[in-house]
Every structure is written in structure tokens, then in C-alpha cells.
Design goal:
Elements: H1 15-27, H2 30-35, H3 42-54
């Protein structure tokens, strides 16, 4: 069986989900630790940073 994926352009309604996705991806790696060394502040700061990136 063949599975077909649909790709679409993101819209404004996707902003929250994309921000969370990017923030989580950054926080788990070395880049997130480099950008925000304080682990307690990292989720909030990277969340705001991700929002800027995807908007």
C-alpha cells in the first residue's frame, strides 16, 4: 500500500504549533544550550525566539 502525504504552506493558524515545534527542537540540542545556558530559563526564552523565527 502506498501512502501519500499532503504538504501545504503554513498559515497564521499554524503559528503556535510551529513555535512549540521549533522551541522543542532547539532546547534538546547543543544550540539551545549555547543560546540560553540557564536550563531553567531556556523553555521560555526559546519559545519567544521560535515565535520570532516562524512569524
Amino acid at each position: 500500500m502506498t501512502r501519500t502525504e499532503v504538504v501545504r504552506r503554513a498559515s497564521g493558524t499554524d503559528l503556535d504549533a510551529l513555535s512549540v515545534l521549533v522551541a522543542e527542537a532547539l532546547s534538546d540540542g547543543a544550540v539551545g544550550g549555547w543560546l540560553v545556558p540557564d536550563a531553567a530559563e531556556r523553555p521560555e526564552v526559546l519559545g519567544r525566539y521560535a515565535r520570532l523565527l516562524v512569524s
